[in-house]
């Protein structure tokens, strides 16, 4: 059970990071830099899709949901799914 909480905390931190880039850019008067951070993070997560999509198919997760979760959470979604810590 503790392992589930560990991954959930990491997923929350991934969302905070995703939201934090544009917010920090606004506070630092560098909004373009903040949005660039978001785009780079999304690109990094998109690069994980060749790993995440076959795994999602194997676990019965719809492709659209897998793409959304992977873009939001990255490896903090598909790695615990692969290890059986979380379900779908």
Which features characterize this protein?
about 90 residues, mainly alpha, 5 helices, about 85% helix
What does this structure look like?
With 88 residues, this protein is mostly helical. The protein has one domain. The protein contains 5 helices and no strands. Helix 1 (2-27) runs antiparallel to helix 2. The two termini are 16 Å apart. The mean pLDDT is 90.
- Which sequence of SSEs, written as H and E, runs from N to C? HHHHH
What does the overall shape look like? flat
The number of domains: 1
User: Helicity level, as a percent range?
Assistant: over 70%
Main sheet properties: none
| Proportion in β-strands | under 5%
The poorly predicted ranges are none
Structural class: mainly alpha
Work out the radius of gyration. Answer: 14 Å
Give the CA-CA distance, first to last residue: 16 Å
Helical segment count:
5
Count of extended strands:
0
Mean pLDDT: 90
